[in-house]
From TrEMBL:
UniProt-listed InterPro entries: GH, GH_1_N_CS, Glyco_hydro_1, Glyco_hydro_1_AS
Domain of life, source organism: Bacteria
GO molecular function: beta-glucosidase activity
Organism per entry: Scopulibacillus darangshiensis
Name of protein: 6-phospho-beta-glucosidase
Length: 485
């Protein structure tokens, strides 16, 4: 038998990924308006339940705005990237990053979301960030909406439930395309667009308690996001002819728990439920299998004339995913559970789990990449993958995170094998290269970074940046284009 050695393409993009609401801070500086993320309270672990981890109620909004609560809102603070972006980008450059994924805070550009004119100070901030990246020859990958729906749109339209939000989003997209047309080629419309069906407030600024039929509301909001993404893609191609628009999916891959055909069928259905979002983005139409789901759940998507044509004419150019774990599907789900922050799944006896209960499955990433490339035949960019863990600094300030190196090494090995299988993989940005505020729990203690940030869950600390062992390891990975792991 012949020997085959998989390797990454020569111009593979290596880097890291962040979100404005988790790093920037400065939530009320330079004209920025409030966004959905600014209402997410920090809840200590011993008080946290599935009910209070993600969704926000109208009453919580009222208490926050009236000052009746003593809650902390860590996403308003982030890790202070707004004031430290030069220092932080220099650290990314020191690691050798060739790409950096970040998001624009929509409410920095249009403070209420529906404003007629953009906020110049917000536009200038991202000019400064992009210029700093260009200085080090780091390719930006920019997400237009990463859980940052302006609160003004929630107040006025209940977020993406209102069709009017499409036009406001497209105006925002057109504004930044024109402003940064010479600086940004790779764009992503919505981060993890499937989040709107898991946490409508996080993914779409939707307060479910304002809706008579919350299930209908979130899928209607999703439809508006699909149309907005397609219209933004059209604008992008008009304004930046070589610009590329990507979609973004939180890939939640399901295995059948047993060979029982009922479990296999359940896994197939749950994989379809997840891939539905990329099916619309990449193929430009709703898949037939969703018709049954909509009927069984009394969902009637309200479309305007021309919506289907818009989706069909303006599909995405490439697909991006986050990948953290795999799950098990069972027709009779009884047994030990694995409690991930967003998912609750049967425990897979063949996998280890993170400190937060996320099942670690590197080979699953190879499976996912092959499945998705077979399905769409579009370039794939992994824009989130990483290990949230408790990191402890030694007395000398050093942070030994061999567990993170091990996690990333195993995933990169499987990515390389997927490339060898024929998958057109164009890049890899690990999640949170500099420690940031957790999306789902607003903790700082859930650390993903190569760079340690001196800040704790209560907001105390100097914000000093320190290189972890993984910093030097990832630098070598990039230097050798994934050959030295």
């Amino acid at each position: 038998m012949g020997q085959f050695k998989a390797k990454f393409p020569d111009h593979f993009y290596w880097g890291g990924a962040t979100a404005a609401n988790q790093i920037e801070g400065a939530f009320d500086e330079d004209g920025k308006g409030l966004s959905a993320a600014d209402f997410v309270e920090y809840i200590p672990k011993d008080q946290r339940t599935k009910d209070n981890a993600m969704e926000i109620t109208s009453e919580q909004i009222r208490k926050t705005l009236s000052g009746e609560t003593t809650a902390r809102y860590p996403k308003r603070e982030g890790n202070d990237f707004y004031h430290r972006y030069k220092e932080d980008i220099a650290l990314l450059a020191e690691m050798g990053f060739t790409s950096f994924r970040f998001s624009i805070h929509w409410s920095r550009i249009f403070p209420n979301g529906y404003d007629e004119t953009p906020n110049e100070a917000g536009l200038q901030f991202y000019d400064n960030v992009l210029d700093e990246l260009a200085k080090y020859d780091i390719e930006p990958i920019v997400t237009l909406s990463h859980y940052e729906t302006p609160y003004g749109l929630t107040e006025k339209y209940n977020g993406w439930v209102g069709r009017e939000v499409i036009d406001h989003f497209v105006r925002y997209a057109e504004t930044v395309f024109k402003r940064y047309k010479d600086k940004v080629k790779f764009w992503i419309s919505f981060n993890e667009i499937n989040m709107i069906t898991i946490s409508p407030f996080t993914g779409g600024g939707i307060l479910s308690d304002r809706e008579d039929n919350p299930m209908q509301a979130k899928y209607q909001g999703l439809h508006h996001q699909f149309v907005a993404s397609a219209l933004a893609t059209k604008k992008l191609h008009d304004i930046i002819p070589d610009g590329k628009m990507g979609c973004m999916l939180a890939r939640m891959s399901h295995y059948a728990n047993t060979p029982n055909p009922e479990d296999v069928l359940k896994a197939q259905k749950e994989n379809q439920d997840n891939l539905f979002f990329t099916d619309v983005h990449a193929r430009g139409e709703y898949p037939k299998y969703m018709e049954r789901f909509f009927i069984e759940n009394d969902i009637k998507i309200v479309k305007e004339s021309g919506d289907d044509e818009i989706l069909k004419q303006h599909p995405v150019d490439y697909i991006t995913i986050s990948y953290y774990m795999s799950m098990l599907s069972s027709a009779t789900p009884e047994g030990e559970r694995s409690e991930g922050n967003l998912m609750n799944t049967l425990k897979n006896p063949y996998l280890e789990a993170s400190d937060w209960g996320w099942q670690i499955d590197p080979i699953g990433l190879r499976v996912v990449l092959n499945d998705m490339y077979d399905r769409y035949q579009l370039p794939i960019f992994i824009v989130e993958n990483g290990l949230g863990a408790y990191d402890k600094a030694g007395e000398d300030g050093s942070i030994h995170d061999d567990y993170r190196i091990d996690y990333l090494r195993k995933h990169i090995e499987q990515m390389k094998e997927a490339v060898g299988d024929g998958v057109e993989l164009i890049g890899y940005t690990t999640w949170g290269p500099i420690d940031l505020v957790s999306m789902s729990t607003s903790e700082m203690s859930k650390r993903y970074g190569f760079v340690y940030v001196d800040k704790d869950d209560e907001g105390n600390g100097s914000l000093e940046r320190r290189r972890k062992d993984s910093f030097y390891w990832y630098k070598k990975v990039i230097e050798t284009n994934g050959e030295e792991l």
